[in-house]
Specification:
Largest sheet: 7 strands, mixed
Helix content: 40-55%
Keywords: Transferase
Organism: Violaceomyces palustris
Structural class: alpha/beta
Protein name: PLP-dependent transferase
Bound molecules: pyridoxal-5'-phosphate
Strand content: 5-15%
Number of helices: 15
Number of strands: 12
Distance between the termini: 80 Å
Order of helices and strands: HHHHEHHEHHEHEHEHEHEEHEEHEEH
Length: about 525
Amino acid sequence: MTLNDGQKAASASKPLSSSSSSPLEPVAPSQELATLLPQVVQMVQAFVEEGEKPGSNVTAWQSIPQLRQNVSLDLPDYGSVKDGDKKLLDSIQLVLENSVNPWTGRFLDKLYSANTPVGVCADLILSVLNANAHVMSASPMLSLAEEKCVEGLCEMFGFNDTPDGLTMPGGSSANTLAVQTALANIFPPFREQGLLGISELLFEKYGRVGKAARPLIFTSDQSHYSLDKAAISAGLGLSSVIKVPCDHTGRMDPAALSRLINDSISEGLGTPFFVNATSGSTVLGSFDDLRSISAIARRHGCWLHVDGSWGGPIIFSPTRAHSSLMDGSELADSITINPHKLLNVPLQCSFLLVRRGKALSANTLDAGYLFHSKDARENAAMKTMGCGRRGDALKFWLYWVRFGKEGLGKHVDAGLRLANDVVEAIRDEPRLELGPLAEPLFLQVCFRPKPPRDHKGVEPPSVEVRSKATRYVHNVLKERRRFAVDFAPLPGGIGDFIRLVVHPRTKREDLEELIEEVASIGEEFWERSEESF
Ligand SMILES: *Cc1c(COP(=O)(O)O)cnc(C)c1O
């Protein structure tokens, strides 16, 4: 199949015209790519370089309304092919110029950050293959990469009894599939009869008392909202989700879990079937105690799911004190992990792993037109509610090839060291106060301006005023465009804090600058607020 050099040279120089009558193919694609790609690569390179400049901004605009005024994305009736590439390239440039530039390293707003050059290349490969990972015959290498990554992750989490898994388009989808899979496995009539079948089953078991026939999900009040959405989409509804309180570090209180489960049974509120533990919560970054939660789930015959969308990659850490936060993962029935967050794999790349792979067969329908192979491994789409799938695992596989387990682990550790330093720096800054932190610390640091000791306003300032200071700082930072950070109300009614996500590749000097910015903008707020009193 390989061309010899002579043939290669000949095919590269020969002008190729297209015989297609579709306007989508004005010339042979290889020829169009030969002119477009180098120009786009140059623009992409310039975008990344611009981001890397020390003086760069995260966005070109100060607010979304301003962005709306600055740009217009029109939808023309007639295309621009005949006029050459300018219109297309200008449009690409418009997108690049007005997008958030993650390559600044100062987009610290969300749980994901800049991709890597490997990721950019991986996306290009995915695009040129344009293969649907629903069946292996269409996407042979992408499916093998998925199989391999699932195996590798399952091994790390201690799943060793015929586990299985697949990529999902995000942690929320993975969590939703976990709920559906659990429903069908814990309550076999679900697949054929739906919730009505479950009701009949439970009425037979418990009699027609109260709401005992309602399947219940237990998850912490700090867990991700996707668990609530999963309950909506599974037909259970929001009142089927029981929120378990957390301690001040954001960890689920196992004693409260046990009590709430027992109460729900004794009061006839429903039938517990699903317990979700969070590894790396969205706001504070705390890890639930998997062993104690697993013991409780097991005692009540519940499916144990671990939402490691954010914190799951800590399993790669070579430092025992870090990776041990996932101890007990081997006891879970399913785990979600998002390499597209902490591991910087391009969006989207998320996995659902299942300890006993057979459980996924609850989602299978036999589509005769699609699933021709008897080997279940060749029919990835059988495991989900979806059909067409992007081969997202390829990106993670290429990261694994490039950096190894060791590199990914050291990446996580680098982030944890940096987060520790940031906390120390904020502690040393009298103009700032730290919010509650995960214990042990993960990658989120919540902090806000502290009113000066001699503050002349109402003393001490109320939670509302302190939250106002946070939002003031957040706004000014946004206008200055150097940093993107988020803010969040913290549990316990203590008001809003700046939530900084420390990414492993964030530069130390950028974090120092940010801390100084928050402190000085805060100072300005308190001075102004004194004037208004
Ligand atoms: C981000 C996150 C999710 C959702 O993942 P998506 O990929 O954004 O759908 C779920 N759980 C936790 C804990 C998260 O941090």
